[in-house]
Amino acid sequence: MTKHLRNFCIIAHIDHGKSTLADRLLEETGTVSIREMKEQLLDDLELERQRGITIKARAVVMKFRRGKDEYELNLIDTPGHVDFQYEVSRALACCEGVLLLVDAFQGVEAQTVANAYAAMEHDLHIIPVINKIDLTHARPDEVAEEMMNSLGTDPDDCVRVSAKTGQGVGKLVDAIIEHIPEPPRDTEAVLQAMVFDSNYDDYRGAITYVRVMQGTVRKGQKIRFLRADTTHDVVELGQFTPHRTACDELSAGQVGYLICNIKSLGDVHIGDTISIPGDGAAEPLAGYSRPKRMVYCGLFPSDGQNFSDLREALERLAVNDPSFEFEPETSDALGFGFRCGFLGLLHMEIVQQRLENESDIDLVQTAPNVTYEIVNKRGETVEIHKPQDVPDPGDVEEFRQPIVRCNIIVPTDFIGAVMKLCQERRGIQKSQEYLAAQRAMLTYDIPLAEVVYDLHDKIKSCTRGYGTLDYEIIGYEAADLARLDFLVNGKRVDALSIVCNRADADRRGRAVAKKLKSEIDRHMFEVAVQAAIGSRVIARETVPAMRKNVTAKCYGGDITRKRKLLQKQKEGKKRMKAIGNVEISQKAFMAVLSED
Ligand code: GTP
C-alpha cells in the first residue's frame, strides 16, 4: 500500500467561504461525520467567530483510503488579513499547493490578489476555486475571467463548488490529489522542520505547529530550535484530526504538532527551524524574520484605579500572542498605563476587543501612531514608538516614515473618488489595471500613517462598500515630518503629542487647540492652550478666567440644590488631572483623542 501526502492552504478574501469549505472537505474525506460537524470547526476562538476572521493558522489532517492507496491531506489554515502576512508566508512555505478561493458573486478582491502573488512567489501549485455557485446572483463565468485577468489562472482549471451545499467538493478533492505535488519524502536525512504557528494551552504549555521538511521527529527525542537556540525534549507529538491525536513520529512531508514543556509562546518563534542538538544539525530554513510592530498606542485604565488589573489582562494576552508587546508608560494626563505595539491596525483592534471581552476594564486609548525612524545629528538611526520620544527639531537630521503599497480593487464607477482620496493621503499612483469591464485595481504607495487612521473606512464609504484594500510595507522614506505638541499654560501635555506632516501642522494644531479649549473648565485665571512645533507656537486659544461663583445662583434658593451641586463638583474633581496649575478632566483628554 502506498501512502500519499498533500499539503495545502486555502487562501481567500474574508467571507468568501474559507471556513465553510474547510468543513466540507473534512466531511467529504470522512474525517468528521456530518453529525459530528459543529459549525465551523476551524474557527474555534469565540472572537474569531464574532469578527468572522481566522486569526491564527491551524492545521488539520484528512486521512482516507481509495482502493490500494492511502491519502493524508494536510490543510493548513491561514490568517486572512494583511497584518498577519508573515504568518501567511510561513504557512505557504509548508505547502506544495493552494486553493485560491473566490466568491462567485463578489469576484476577485484585494486580499485574494495579495495572497495569490505570495503563493506564486513560493512556487506553489494553484487550484482556482469558485465558491457559492448556489447563489442566484452567482456569475462564475465572469469571475473565472476576472481571475484570469488578475491572477493569470486558466478558466478551464477553475473548480466550481458550493461550500454550503457540498456541490463540486468531491471534484475538488480529486483535483487536490491529481494536481498538488507530493512533498519530498527524505525520511532518513537529518531532521529539519519548520515552525509555522504556535498556540498556548493552559495545561500543556506551548503547542508548536510544524511541517517536517526532511528526516523524522520522534516522541522522547531531543530537538533544538535553531534560531532561538534552545533544546527541548519532545513530550508529545501528533496531528489534528481535527482533535489533537498523539502519535509516535512525524516524518518528512508531514504536518503536525509538538509539545515540549515550553512555558511561554515568547520562546517559540514562527519561522524557526527545528533540528537535532549538536554539530550535525540541518541548515536553518530561509525566510525567518522577527515580528515587527508597526503600530503603537497607549492604553490606560479610565479611572486610574485598576492599573494592576490591566497589567494582568495584558500579560494574559501576551502569553497567547507573542507578536503583541507592551511596556509601562506614565502620562501626566492619563496616569499610569502601557505603551502597546501591534503588527498593524487590525491586530490592534483585536487585542483591544479581547481586553474588553475578557476583562472588565474600561480603556482609554491614545491616537495610534506608526513606527518612525529618525537620523539624529550624530548620524545615529533611532526607532521611535511614541511621539513624545521624537527629539526637538534641532536634533533631527532626517525623519523617515514607513510606506506601504496598497492594492485597491473597485468598481470602475468609483475610480475617481478613490484616486482623489489616495491623493489627499499623499499617495503616489503606481498602476491601474482593469480586471473586468466593471472592475479595476489601483496600486498606490501611501505613508502607513495615512492608512492607519481610517483609509479603509473611507474607501468603503466612498465606494458604497464595494472597494477592498490590501497593503504591504515596502520600506521607509524620508518626509517633512514634525512633532506637534500641545501646551496648557506653557506645559506640554504628553498624551496629545502627534507626529504629522509639516504642511498639515497648522490645520491640525488649530483644530485640536480649539477642541481642547472647549473641554477645559474655566479656572480663576486665564488658561492658554497652544499648539507648537519645538519652541514655535503655531496656534493659540484662551480659556477666559472664571467670573462667577458656581453656587452663586443658588443663594437664597434651595439648600439641597446647592449641596447637590457641590457634591457633583467633588465627584468631578476625583477624575481631574493637573497639568501645571490647570485641572483637566480625563474626559476632556478622551474627547480630544477621539476627535483626532
Ligand atoms: P473568514 O473566516 O472571515 O475569513 O471567512 P471565511 O472566508 O472563512 O468565510 P465563511 O466560511 O465564514 O463564510 C462566510 C459566509 O458565506 C458564511 O455566512 C457562509 O455561510 C457563507 N457561505 C460560505 N460558502 C457558501 C456557499 O457555497 N454558498 C452560500 N450561499 N453561502 C456560503
TrEMBL record:
GTP binds at D15, H16, G17, K18, S19, T20, N131, K132, I133, D134. One of its GO terms (cellular component) is plasma membrane. CDD domains: EF4_II, EF4_III, LepA, lepA_C. Transmembrane segments: none annotated. It comes from the Bacteria. InterPro entries: EF-4, EFG_III/V, EFG_V-like, EFTu-like_2, LepA_C_sf, LepA_CTD, LepA_IV, P-loop_NTPase. It is found in: Cell membrane. The keyword Nucleotide-binding applies. It catalyses: GTP + H2O = GDP + phosphate + H(+). SUPFAM superfamilies: EF-G C-terminal domain-like, P-loop containing nucleoside triphosphate hydrolases, Translation proteins. Residues 3-184 form the Tr-type G domain. GO terms for molecular function: GTP binding; GTPase activity; ribosome binding; translation elongation factor activity. It is a peripheral membrane protein. Its EC number is 3.6.5.n1. Keywords: Cell membrane, Elongation factor, GTP-binding, Hydrolase, Membrane, Nucleotide-binding, Protein biosynthesis. It is an enzyme of class 3 (hydrolase). GO terms for biological process: positive regulation of translation. Belongs to the TRAFAC class translation factor GTPase superfamily. Classic translation factor GTPase family. LepA subfamily. Required for accurate and efficient protein synthesis under certain stress conditions. May act as a fidelity factor of the translation reaction, by catalyzing a one-codon backward translocation of tRNAs on improperly translocated ribosomes. Back-translocation proceeds from a post-translocation (POST) complex to a pre-translocation (PRE) complex, thus giving elongation factor G a second chance to translocate the tRNAs correctly. Binds to ribosomes in a GTP-dependent manner. PANTHER family: TRANSLATION FACTOR GUF1 HOMOLOG, CHLOROPLASTIC, TRANSLATION FACTOR GUF1-RELATED. This is Elongation factor 4. It comes from Stieleria bergensis.
